[in-house]
Structures are given as C-alpha cells and as structure tokens.
Amino acid sequence: MRIAVVTPELHRTGGTERGVAELVSRLSPKHSVCLFASRWAPDGFANICFHHVPAMPSPGLAHFFSFYWSATRAVRAAERNEGAYDTVYSPGPNCAQVEVCTAWFCQARQKELLESGRLRPRPARVADWLRLLHRRVYAASVTRLERGFYSSPRLKRVVSPAEILKSDLVECYGMAPERIVVGHSGVDAAAFAPELREALRPRARRELGLRDGAFYFLFVGTDWVRKGLLTIFEALPAVPEAQLLVVGAEDPEAWRRASARFGVEARVRYLPRRPDILYYYAAADALVAPSVYEPFGLMPLEAMACGLPSIITRPMGVAELVAPDEAIILENASSAAELGRAMQALQKDHARYARLVDAGIARARAHSWDGMCDVTMEQLLAVAQRNGGSAHP
C-alpha cells in the first residue's frame, strides 16, 4: 500500500506520538509511507517519504489549526503531483482527507471538565488566567472541529484504544458504533523491563537527591487538572511520610499554593519532562494516576511493565485490561479518602506491594503494541481495497 500518515510529530516521547511511532515502524518495512509532519525523529524508521508541514509553534490553538490547514494543503498537493494514496491515516483530526484514524481523545469531555471548574487550583497570577482561558477556547473550538471530522463521510474507520473512548465518540459526536473498532494500546516490554529499572534505580535516585528509605509516589502528566493532581494533594495528609514527584510541563505556581493549603507543599517536588521516562519510573516507588478522564493511559501500563505498582481509576481505558490484583483501581476518581487508603496500602502493606509488582509485570507483558497495530493495519487494508487500489478520487 501507499499510505499517507499525517501527524504533527513522530517520535516515541508522549502517548499519542508513541502509538503512532509503533504503527509506522510496522508499516514502513512493508508499505510505502509518506509522512506529513512538522517534526520527526527518523531513527528506527525505514522507507519513509517525508513532507514537512509548517505550523505555528504556539499557542496550542494556533498550532492545532495551522497544522490542520497546512497538512490539508500539503496532502492535496502531494496527491496532485505524485498520485492518490491508497488511504490517508492520522491519529485524530489532523487534516481533511483522513480516511482511517486512531482516536486518542474526546475534546467534548475535556470541555465539560473545564466548564465545571472542578479539580483545578485557583489561578495564582494573570498568566494562569490567560492559560485557563486559552484551554477553554481550545477545548470548545476543537470540539466543534471533532464533531465535523467524526461525522465526515470521508472518514471510513476509527480505531479506539479503549471501549470508554468508543462510548464517548458515540455519545458526544453521534458516531455509529459499527464505524469504531477497539484495539487496546500496549507497551514495549523490552523497553520497560524490570531489569532495566532496577539497574537504573541507584543512579536515578542519587542524581535526583532522593532520601534513602523514603517512599516516593510518582505523578506524570501534561494535564494536571484532568489527571487529578489536586486530589493527590488532598490525599497526601493520609500518608504523612510519603513524598510526591510531579513530572510535567505546567507552571507549578498555582499548584504550589494549592499544596500549601493542604499542608503538603514541603513534600511535593516538581520535575521537568524528559524523553527517558524510565528514569523517573526507576527513581519512584509507586505510580499514582487518579485521572477523572483518560481514554487509555500509557503510563500505568509502562510502570507496571517495569515493576512499579500503580494506582489507577475506573474511568481510565487501561482499567479495562487490569484486574484489581494487578493494580489498585479506584472506583471514585475524585475521592481523596479512597486515594489516601490506596496510597497507605502501597506504602505499608509490603506483601500486597510485592504481589502487585509481580502481577503487574505479567499483565503488561500480555499487552504489546501488536494488538492495536494489527487492528489499525486491518482497517487501512480494508479501506485501501475499498478504494480500489492506488487510485481513487
């Protein structure tokens, strides 16, 4: 097949990007892949024809729409100059010509959360108010685009990483359920092996200056509101000896003030994102991910794969794969009391901690990226055959 892949970035840092990278690494040895992106890391990919798509770097809303329109024009020009593609693939609404996509998120749900005002600290300064305004405008604008994108007759198949997101697309955008196929996300067990984490652990803890014998919970995310950081602050008094490592790119000032209200500011440390997330998994003792909405959630599966026990919530897609003896699953994502009890269990119940480590490794190893990639490739082939080969209008 000759496939156009349209994505803002192609690399293995970040959830969506990692999923696309796994798919492209399987497609490119056997098919002709034309990549339309603003940025990519070519290592590990073969037989790729790259088309650079210019886009405004920021703010997020300008970046999203400038890439969408630039990619639409770029694909149109390439088809005019080089011939039509057998099919056009994208992780979400990244251009108008997409025929097969992987849906990684539902902005309508994000819009509901932002409008509710829940789980976010009060803005600490003008810049925080501006960021909040931008996020609300972004969610509202992209929701409108997603509604048109998912109802477009051009879009033939949608792959969802979990049943929870499939239900959201049906409920929020009126998609027919038969147009959506579920292929659960996975993990690269070789890259997130327990042996690698154990070997890296002494150096990571030493370089981060973590205290010997102290128990460190790890929180990782680019959206601290949706992923429940405020709930963790509220739960931390229940585990007075525990420390919290917060990884992400958000401005922490408003969050520092929020943690101070709960009396836990001194036990919270903010760390920058880095491409080798295994470094933070190695340093920490447990992952805490109390998301109120998460279409899948790669971090818990990666953490489990390398032997880091995890706390997750029922509204996360990854919870569809995990049993209660493989991770702690919170039924009420917003309950600080339930989260506090779970954190206590991981810190104090050593036998349960050990059971979660062993069971989590086994569960993660059972879910490679092959599942989602095989489902996606089946949809690409079906659409290409429906288009009648390499030429279609």
Walk me through what this model shows.
By secondary structure, the chain is α/β, with parallel strands linked by helices. The protein has two domains: 2-185 and 369-387, 3-Layer(aba) Sandwich (Rossmann fold), CATH 3.40.50.2000; 194-365, Rossmann fold, CATH 3.40.50.2000. Helix content is 44%, strand content 15%. The radius of gyration is 21 Å and the shape is globular. The model has no long low-confidence stretch (mean pLDDT 94).
Radius of gyration from the alpha-carbon trace, in angstroms: 21 Å
Q: What is the arithmetic mean of pLDDT? A: 94
Domain module count: 2
Q: Share of helix among residues?
A: 40-55%
CATH topology of the largest domain: Rossmann fold
Oligomer: single chain
List keywords for this structure.
seven-stranded parallel β-sheet; Rossmann fold; six-stranded parallel β-sheet; 13 helices; 2 domains; single chain; 393 residues; alpha/beta
Short description:
With 393 residues, this protein is α/β, with parallel strands linked by helices. 44% of the residues lie in helices and 15% in strands.
Topology:
Elements: E1 2-6, E2 9-10, H1 15-27, E3 32-37, E4 39-40, E5 48-52, H2 60-82, E6 87-90, E7 100-102, H3 107-116, H4 126-150, E8 157-160, H5 163-173, E9 180-182, H6 194-208, E10 216-220, H7 229-235, E11 243-247, H8 253-261, E12 268-271, H9 278-283, E13 286-288, H10 298-305, E14 310-313, E15 328-330, H11 336-348, H12 350-365, H13 370-387
Parallel strand pairs: 1-3, 1-6, 2-4, 3-5, 6-7, 7-8, 8-9, 10-11, 10-13, 11-12, 13-14, 14-15
Helix pairs in contact: 1-13, 3-4, 7-11, 10-12
